[in-house]
Amino acid sequence: MKNIIFFGDSLTAGHGLPAAQSFPSLLQQRLDAQQLPYKAYNYGVSGETSAGGRQRLATVLARHPVDVFVLALGANDGIRGIPVRETSQNLQFIIDAMKRQFPLAQLVLAGLEFPFDLGPLGGHRLAHYAGEFKALFRTLADKNSLPFIPFLLQGVLGRRELNLADGVHPNAAGQQILANNVWQVLGPLL
């Protein structure tokens, strides 16, 4: 068996849902159905920032050999307005540490977009931040030659029927779409 580590925040953890409804669990079902020899590990932590991920990375990497590592952090950085440069540095640290410890592992980066429509606020600084935030993921993927999921929440963000009451976290149907978004990039690699 090979190991796939899903390293992220509440979106990965499946916040507010039973563990079996998180997208890593849904992908495990797909792996099993296709008889692919992979075990999916969900290391999603609600509220996690890229800095928090950087801090806990060594603990996670010490638990299992890693064959595939899906990095899906940054949403909480965006919500908190953490400088894009800082988020980018933290994610690059995680990528570098992974490559050092597991040089043969396949890394996949999930992109995110700032979760709010900033237009009505008229804030040029906020709109500028949103653009920089979205771009940081593509930039990191290109710089590191990583397979890239352009937008983890594609088809889910802003759709009330696909999110929990908080309007931020995908419900079970939303997690199914996240699983599909990830599989489009991950599936061909396996």
TrEMBL record:
Domain of life, per lineage: Bacteria
Alphabetical list of Gene3D superfamilies matching this protein: SGNH hydrolase
Every SGNH hydrolase-type esterase domain range: 6-177
PANTHER family: SGNH HYDROLASE-TYPE ESTERASE DOMAIN-CONTAINING PROTEIN, THIOESTERASE 1/PROTEASE 1/LYSOPHOSPHOLIPASE L1
Protein name, as recorded: Arylesterase
